[in-house]
Amino acid sequence: MVNDQLTAADAPHISAAHPRKRHLRRKRRWLLLGLVMIIALAALAAAARGRGFKTQVLRKLGLANPPGMVKVASVFPGNGAERVPLDILPTIRFRSTDKLHSKSLSPQALRLIDVSAQREVPADFSVLKDNTVKLTPRQPLAPLRQYNLLVASTLAAKSAARVAPYLTSFTTEGACDPSLRFEKAELPATHGRGVTALTIGPDGMLYAGCDDGSIIRYAIAADGTLTEDRVIDSLIRRAGGPRLLIGLVFDPKSTPDRLIAWVTHNFCAFEDVPDFTGAISRLSGNDLQEVQEIVTGLPRSIRDHATNQPAFGPDGALYIPQPSNSAFGAPDPFWGMRPERLLSASILRLDLNKLTPGRALDVRTVDGGGTYDPSSHDAPLTIYATGIRLAYELIWHSNGSLYAPTNGSSLGGNAPAGPTSPAIQRVPFAEDDWLHKIRPGSYHGHPNPIQNHFVLNGGNPTADYDYAEVPVYPVGTQPDSQYVRPAFVFGQHISANGVIEYQSDTCDGKLKHRLLVCRYNRGSDIIALTLNPAGEVIDEQVSIPGLSDFRNPLDLIEDPTTGNIYVTEYGGRKLTLCRPMTNSQDQKPEAKNQ
User: Fold this and answer.
1) Is 551 inside a domain boundary?
2) Residue 424: its pLDDT value, please?
3) Quick check: helix, strand or coil at residue 435?
4) For the segment 250-295, what is each residue's pLDDT rounded down to a tens digit?
5) Could you tell me whether strands 488-492 and 496-501 are parallel, antiparallel, or unpaired per DSSP bridges?
6) What gap in Å lies between CA 474 and CA 457, rounded to an integer?
């Protein structure tokens, strides 16, 4: 009865305190009960694995991925695997709270692609335990061939879950043609050099352009080995410091007594690079000591995409590969949100007859604050072809065609929206590398909105697998009207760079007129491509003895008098000599009687 004697002033305090205490006690009881329920449900879920109950429980608790979040957990063979047996049965395991069934696999869900042919390999699919899908090809796999395993469509599990697009690749085992063999020889005089470009001058000397702007001239001995003749630093002295030299080519009018070389060079850095810092210079004199600026203001990416190695065409013009500023055509963070420029992701053509003697040509275009118009009738520098993301070097083949090995992008970049195609944010898989056969006005798949090109590669025109398709596009997305298919597909993460047409009759003439291309990354070798009379690739040879196991081969050149090949191993900071071998060189001499 004590409380009855409290004053009226205390009454509000007492009446408010009792309900609050009761509320806290109830809250604690509910929290304890909820914890017990979670533990019990988790135990039940573990016991009910694969029966659907776990999925529903975890989703109710907000602990499970909702429909549409199924992801690939693992693949076999692993991404990038090499020398894979021809009878391999690829498997792919999905991370999913739903159980997949064989009936859930539509023909469009999983595809095995012959990369170089860009053709789907017919295969049967079966679901094993733990949501693992096994592929059984209906035809034998080809030796020494890269295959892509593409997850591209809906997997109809109990929840109609979608799996994110996924792509993995592997290369099969096989033996090379035994008549194609080279032997390697060390070249100590070249060690420690970051060589980016190789060529043989009209004087019979080997010239190596370096990543600091210097040019090293080497004398070639009878056995193919090199001795350093001279370090040419005229470009560095003219620029007042290092320049990233990428391209080095001699003018067709150059003679042993009158050397004329053309170089492409850029701001010497690979990070935070200022735009419009690419240039072309003409070097002349017995020691290439005279430097004349010819073109300035070429675009430059914020990273390592720089004006690359040019080539003289049969018309006497200089053709220049100008790389992209982005991964897939739209600005993205990795590439500093820098947009494509009017001249980027293109093959440019420089008409030397239209240059004004003694005056450099500033080609900064309107989109970069300049005034240059490449479409003007009297423009010396024009756009020859578009959609070429990163061609390191060009080659005019003796068949009259221009070829450009081209690097595709790693995943994660953005593709622009266009009139007939949606934007793609964070493209979920890496792009293939291509060999493009270039012709005037052609478009080769890398978007550049300022050029009115928006569709990435082959689009996605049908529900079947389409050549160079981009499966994240909606079905029905047509390729650009000017799109030209590549002549060959190297595959992912190859980094196809330096290229030559082999001229020698060595190796029984089997390499003559083949394209030899450096595979800088995956492969780390030189691939040989055979062309038919129409200029299309009909055969590929990899794992050639003596042309394999390099440390990041970047560029190469042939000495046509011997068939020797010089390779710059950029990762090893050296040059390597590769001499062709004959069958007689393998035969051991008979033991003499003592």
Assistant:
1) no
2) 97
3) strand
4) 999 999 999 999 999 999 999 999 999 999 999 999 999 999 999 9
5) unpaired
6) 14
Please state whether 549 falls in left (phi above 0), alpha (psi between -120 and 50) or beta.
left
Tell me the HSE value of 491 on the side-chain side, using a 13 A CA sphere: 27
Phi-psi domain of 80 (left: phi exceeds 0; alpha: psi -120 through 50; beta: other): left
Q: Does residue 591 register a pLDDT over 90?
A: no
Cβ distance 311 to 241 under 8 Å?
Answer: no
CA atoms lying within 13 Å on the CB side of residue 580: 22
Please tell me the pTM assigned to this model.
0.84
User: Does residue 128 sit within a domain?
Assistant: yes
- Give the whole-angstrom CA distance, residue 182 versus residue 565: 9
Domain of residue 165, residue span? 71-172
Query: What pLDDT score does 17 carry?
Result: 41
Question: Which CATH number characterizes residue 102's domain?
Answer: 2.60.40.1220
Query: What single-letter DSSP state applies at residue 510?
Result: T
Residue 109 lies in a domain: yes
37 domain-assigned: no
Tokens of 476: 């029905």
In this predicted structure, what is the pLDDT of residue 54?
36
What is the total count of domains within the chain?
A: 1
Secondary structure, 3-state, 35-103? HHHHHHHHHHHHHCCCCCHHHHHHHHCCCCCCCCCEEEEEEECCCCEEEECCCCCCEEEEECCCCCCHH
Say how far apart CA 575 and CA 228 lie, in whole Å.
12
What is the SS3 assignment for 131? helix
